[in-house]
Design a protein that fits this description.
By secondary structure, the protein is an all-alpha fold. The protein has four helices and no strands. The protein has one domain.
């Protein structure tokens, strides 16, 4: 029986490149979870992350963050 791409990512064959990536420390379950989303959901998540980073950058420039104890 042929394995699905998801099965290949979650349970890679020993010695495969996917297994090497997993052994290197790549969390393949994150890849699977992203592939389960629609393209629009992925875009929405990316835009939300970009907005959050921009908000952090504005706060940093105002001096609200990044001034820890030294």
């Amino acid at each position: 029986m042929k394995r699905t791409p998801e099965e290949k990512l979650l349970n890679p064959r020993p010695g495969s490149r996917i297994a090497a990536a997993r052994d290197f420390g790549i969390d393949l379950s994150l890849t699977v979870s992203q592939l389960r989303l629609t393209p629009q959901e992925r875009i929405d998540n990316l835009q939300s992350s970009m907005s959050f980073v921009a908000e952090l950058d504005r706060a940093r420039k105002k001096g609200s963050i990044g001034k820890g104890k030294q």
